[in-house]
Amino acid sequence: MTxxxxxxxxxxxxxxxxxxxxxxLLRSAAALVFGAVTIFWAAPSVEVMGWxxxxxxxxxxxxxxxxxxxxxxxxxxxxGKMLSAAGAVLAGAGLSLVxxxxxxxxxxxxxxxxxxxxxxxxxxxxxxRGRHVLSRDWITSGAIGLGTAAxxxxxxxxxxxxxxxxxxxxxxxxxVLWVLSGLTLxxxxxxxxxxx
Length: 196
Hints:
Layout: H1 21-40, H2 46-70, H3 78-99, H4 103-127, H5 135-151, H6 160-192
């Protein structure tokens, strides 16, 4: 979970950023909406799976790319490059799933996208541990992505409903993580600006 407020004079990246909570909350909204679709759609077709999963990965990738500057990174620095690569991989996987449909394709492409992005987020979080306010969130989110990616191939033979269930379960867990993180960041930014 996001670290609590830090006093002035701490390491760069650990102080609350007034604009960081927006992309974090948007990312959580994308994950929770996708998770809700996977729960309430009782018998999704392969096309629904492709569109829903593809749009989720595409939106998550785009929001990750959008949040790099808000997180205080330059795109040419190591953390910026890792998060840019993670966002690009997710967006590319999402676009592939929107355009091409199939159980095997979904399992392989979604697992690859989530696995690569999860590994990059985990690495970024470990590199910045204790030096950035989102480091613990990236570690946890990366582990969730890797776990979801590891499980997806085992459910390919069970069809669209099972694949969406696994992907949606990971999305719900990460969505709850990111909503807590975003609300904490918003609260801390408000206190840093002198608001009650």
